[in-house]
Amino acid sequence: MDKPGPTNFIEQIISHDLEAKLTDRVVTRFPPEPNGYLHIGHAKSICLNFGLAEQFGGVCNLRFDDTNPDKESDEFVQAIIEDIRWLGFQWHGEVRFASDYFEQLYLWAVELITAGKAYVCELSPEQTREYRGTLTEPGKNSPYRDRAIDESVSLLKQMRDGGIEEGCMVLRAKIDMASPNMNMRDPVLYRVKLGGHHRTGNQWHIYPSYDFAHGQEDAIEGISHSICTLEFADHRPLYEWFIENLPVPSSPRQFEFGRLNLNYTVTSKRKLKQLVDEQHVDGWDDPRLPTLSGLRRRGVSPAAVRAFCDSLAVAKTDGMVDMAQFDHFIRQDLNENAPRAMCVLDPIKVTLTNWPDDEQVVLPAANHPNRDDMGERQLPFGQTLYIDRADFTEDTSLSRKKFKRLVLGDYVRLRGAYVIKADGAVHDDAGQVVEIMATVVPNTLGENPPAEMKPRGVIHWVAAHDCLSCDVQLYDRLFNDPEPDAGDKNFLESINPDSSVLISGCKGEASLMSAEPGTTYQFEREGYFCLDARHSNAEHVVFNRTISLRDNWANK
Ligand code: ATP
Ligand code: MG
Question: Which of 44, 175, 454, 471 has the most crowded Cβ, counting Cβ within 10 A?
Fold first, then answer.
C-alpha cells in the first residue's frame, strides 16, 4: 500500500527529522487544561497529535496541564478523558498530569535561582505591569532583581510552605527587561495560590506558570514534537530558554499551527463556561454547543468529527471554517450509517375503513436502503395509523407536482406498506381535521397499483396500536451571527431564540422503543435524530435532532 507523502508542514518537518535522524521516535502529546470541556477546536489538535503519532509509528501522551487549580477540577479531567476515548484515540501509558512533575519543576526553579537566573520579586501586580514596559518601550528592572541568591531560595521555600499571601511574591526568571519579546521580560515562573488543588490537595502553595511547566514536562516525557496553537509562537523563545538553561533529559521542539475557528459558534472555554454557568444552555453537553460532549449528545458520530478535522488545513495561519463544512461531514456520515425509522412529528389519525379492526400484521422494512448488512426491522400495521398533518390536504386543486402527498380523493403510498386513498375527513368544531377516513388499495404491498390509482408520492406513517409516544427536540444554530464574538461584540446578544424547539406528542415506530443514545436514526423525510440520554426515561422519551436532511441555512 502506498503511504501518502507528507502533506502539511508539520508532517514535512517530522519526515525530515526522522530521515536526518534528529529523532528516532515521534512522541507527541495532547495537553488540555482541565478548566472546561473539550470543544471541536480541541478535536483538531487531538486528531493532529494522535494522528501524527500513528502516521509515523510513534506515540502520543495525554497530559493534563493542571497548573492553575482555581479553575480546574476532577469533573473536567473525567469529561476530557471520556471525550478523547469517544473520539477513538488511545494515549500512551498512563494519563499524565503536570502535577506529577511539581517536585522536579520546583528543584529546577531552585537551580535557576542558584545559577543567578531567577529571583523572588515582591512588586505588586500593578507595579509589575508598570515595570514591564510596552511593545514600544523597554521595561525596567525590578528592584528585587539582584537580591541575594540565598534570600530568593529561602523566600521560594516560604512561598511553597504557605507562609506568603497570594499576590505578594512571585518567582521570576532573570532574562531581559528590554527584550522586544514581552514574554522574555523576566517572566513569572511561580505564583502563590492557597486554595488547594484537585489532585495534590494542600501539598503545594505555589504553582508553576504554563511557560515554566510546559517545555520541561515535554522534556521529561521525551516529547519530540510539541505542537500547539499560534498564540504560543511568541512564547517559543522562552520555551527554548528553559530547555537550554536547565538540565532537562531531552530537547523537545515546539511547532505552532492555526487554531480552528468555526462560524456561528464560539470555541473558547471561557465563553462556553459562561453559557453553561449562566444557564443560557442545558449544560456543557447541550447539543447546540460545539463541545464534544454536546456533539455526542446531539447524535454526531466520532467518525464525522474525525473526518471533518482531517479535512482541515494544518497551516501557519488561523482560519475561519464555515459551519456548513462540518455539517457536510455530519450528513455524509449519517446518510451512510444511520438506520432508518419513521416518526410522525405532528400526528393525525388515519382510519382504514376497509381493514378489519382486529387484524394486525407486521411488515418487514430494511434498516437502510442500500446496506443489507444493517438488516431489517418490523413495522406493525393495523386499522388505525398516524401520518403527519402536513402530509394531508383537502384542497383537491393542488397539482400532483406541487403536492406529492395525500389529497382528499387521491392516492398516496405509505412508506414500506400499502397505497391508500383518502375518502373523507372528520373535523372538530373549529373546522380542524382530526381524522382521515381512508381505504387500503389491495395487493399494493411492494406492487404498483393500476395506472388510474397512481400514488402522488410516498409518505411516512406509524401504526397507532403499537408505537412510541415521544418528544422531539429540534435544534438549530445557537447564534444568529456568523461571528458572535468578533471584536468587542457581546456574544450573548446574538443567541438564536429559536435554537431549541420542543415538539411534544410525536409518534415513533415501534422499533424506536429500543433506541439507545449513541445510535442516530434517519427519521424518514424529517432529518437525523438520536435519543437524548439526559432527558429520556421509562415514561418519557426525547429525541434530539442531530441535523436536518438538507442545509436550510444555505438560502438564508
Ligand atoms: P480555550 O481557548 O478554549 O480555553 P485552550 O487553548 O486554553 O482553549 P487547552 O486546554 O489549553 O485550551 O488546549 C489544549 C490543546 O488544544 C492546546 O494544545 C491548544 O493549543 C489546543 N487547542 C485549543 N483550542 C484549539 C482550537 N480552536 N484549534 C486547535 N487547537 C486548539
Ligand atoms: Mg490553554
Answer: 44
Quick one: pLDDT at residue 387? 98
| Region 399-423 average pLDDT | 97
Q: Is 258 helix (H, G, I), strand (E, B) or coil?
A: coil
Which amino acid does the sequence have at 69?
P
Q: Domain segments of the chain: what residues?
A: 9-257, 269-340+470-547, 343-460
Which residue, 40, 554, 88, 73, is CA-closest to 289? 40
Within this chain, domains 269-340+470-547 and 343-460 share the same CATH topology: yes
**pTM over 0.85, yes/no:** yes
269 CB within 6 A, ligand 1: yes
Rounded to an integer, what is the distance from CA 330 to the centroid of its chain? 12
Active site residues: 33, 259, 269
Q: Is the CB of 34 under 6 A from ligand 1?
A: no
pLDDT (0 to 100) of residue 538: 86
Determine the longest span between alpha carbons in the chain, in angstroms: 102
Q: Residue 438 corresponds to which amino acid?
A: A
Q: Cβ(42) to ligand 1 under 6 A?
A: yes
Per-residue confidence band for 6, with pLDDT thresholds at 50, 70 and 90: low
Which class does domain 343-460 fall in? mainly beta
Task: Give 193-246 pLDDT, tens digit per residue.
Answer: 999 999 999 999 999 999 999 999 999 999 999 999 999 999 999 999 999 999
Phi first, then psi: give them for residue 228, nearest 5 degrees: -140, 180
CATH architecture of 9-257: 3-Layer(aba) Sandwich (3.40)
44 lines ligand 1 (CB under 6 A): yes
Residues 108-118: tens digit of each pLDDT: 999 999 999 99
Which CATH entry fits the domain spanning 269-340+470-547: 2.40.240.10, 2.60.120.560, 2.40.50.140, 3.30.1780.10? Answer: 2.40.240.10
Nearest ligand to the C-alpha atom of residue 485: 1
Please identify, by atom number, the ligand 1 atom nearest to the C-alpha of residue 227. Answer: 18
Q: What is the pLDDT of residues 269-295, one digit of tens each?
A: 999 999 999 999 999 999 999 999 999
Please name which ligand lies nearest the alpha carbon of 210: 2
Neighbours of 340 (CB within 10 A): 21
Q: What type of residue is 361?
A: V
Q: Is the CB of 258 under 6 A from ligand 1?
A: no
Nearest partner of 300 among 480, 475, 500, judged by Cα:
475
Backbone φ, ψ for residue 346 (5° rounding)? -130, 80
Position in ligand 1 atom list of the atom nearest CA 38 = 10
What ligand is nearest to the CA atom of residue 34?
A: 1
**Average pLDDT, stretch 75-87?**
98
